[in-house]
């Protein structure tokens, strides 16, 4: 019969191991796959082509190779030419042979999965990378494009941290670049102000020369200022080199997570002392150890679980109050001045109510758009704060991406990704360039804008009202995909709020919802109204401004409404649209009229609009009369014939007398709702 004491001890040990296993699942490392890139501009291959057979032969030999014992491998298959496949595999310098082979084997399967038919591709894992191409890549230093991952925690003392990082970077670069043809790898540590340790790792593909490796690593470290400044850790990976730094140890036998500092593992109990001469005392000592040690481990792990739950709850509560730390996005003014050739007129892209926009090229070759806020703008600080805090948190393909900012003296700069095709108004309202926007492209632009607004209103962590949606704030990328820009007047809401009020109106007359223009009330339905105006402008190719139509004074909304009611909606369509689905065009006019209804509760939500645009089987409701409807010549005396409803009202005293709506009168309400 088994003694009860033994059963109790066994249950206690089993419970302890169960808790250890449970916590290990809670704080488990995420998969070590980092990123990939499929090079689409070098061509694709087809199944069973010579390139396909060469690639699969190469990857198969690489997967089955048992000689990968130095962490670096290169191979070519096929005759020299466009069908030849060249590959490089590299394991991290601190990874053992078995881990290296396993990682490369996984990468072989992954690269075919994520890049199924591209002639050039690369995949990155924490422990290895695999790359192939139809061109020669051996001995060629390539540091573009870089990929970034960073620790979500911020550092507290930027200067001390940066000094330690700079010292460590110089030392590791020199060590790695001086490596041999089998390994160019270095790890090291540096004290931060004498009380905390910074850990770093750098590596180049060994086929590079000493100078090539040093140049590649130097460029990778420069990327920190772009993506990860002010963060406790980051990893920068390029085709030819990679770097990583953290405030905790991550290299060695056990790779660490990229997302957050690793929790320290409980220390193993020290070995028990030699057994005493008395057997009974020895048994008692062993019994004490068996009971106390697991109990201590259980208590420690239980405390860790409670701590993790508390931290998670705190983060959930503080989500809305979180503000991007300035240091993580800040550029040096001299860097931006050099990138824009001292803000030369040749690099000037345009000018708006809050300043000028310049094209710039950073030292790494990256093109950016630099928004230089007006020095005499009384509300410049508010617009600056709004854009940095809001836009840096937004990640969507239909929103312009903020790369960083610069703040020096009276200079306030916002650095965005460069979008080559300028803004929508340069095309849609231009008699020549509008020909480039056929209906297929216009319909794609409408859908992209709608999805971007849906993200702002419902899908992002924060509910954001743009408040200045218009054609000049829709940028077009190289593929004519729309990017919503200019968040200087945006307002942030917590998710259960529906509307807000402001005592000072900002925005662009002609795109403003009536409840906002007349009473200062804004909501997601205010943006829906602006979208409706924009849709009608895209379909018609006309600005929403006043014009005389016989004895009647109309604007675009009135004109579209009257023609839709009379069954002559085709009159609204841009004559430049000689081809394309008339059904889709008429449906968009219908959706636009639903968006600009006077009663905000009648306007559809962004989710409904996206569904209307994608589902033709959905029956659309009948719209009511739009706001600001004009159908009588009696309105003529109240409207200035020279007023362009699509442009922001100027800062002149005359304009201020006519309307208290000026571009530079930003709302003085707090960033967060009251």
UniProtKB/TrEMBL annotation:
One of its GO terms (cellular component) is plasma membrane. The keyword Transmembrane applies. It is a single-pass membrane protein. PANTHER family: CYSTEINE-RICH RECEPTOR-LIKE PROTEIN KINASE 29, RECEPTOR-LIKE SERINE/THREONINE-PROTEIN KINASE SD1-8. ATP binds at residue 371. Residues 259-282 are annotated as: Disordered. It comes from Populus deltoides. It is found in: Membrane. One of its GO terms (biological process) is response to stress. Residues 263-277 have a biased composition (Pro residues). The chain crosses the membrane at residues 289-308. Its main location: membrane. Coiled coil: none annotated. Residues 343-628 form the Protein kinase domain. This is Cysteine-rich receptor-like protein kinase 29. Keywords: ATP-binding, Glycoprotein, Kinase, Membrane, Nucleotide-binding, Phosphoprotein, Receptor, Repeat, Serine/threonine-protein kinase, Signal, Transferase, Transmembrane, Transmembrane helix. GO terms for molecular function: ATP binding; protein serine/threonine kinase activity. Residues 33-137, 143-250 form the Gnk2-homologous domain.
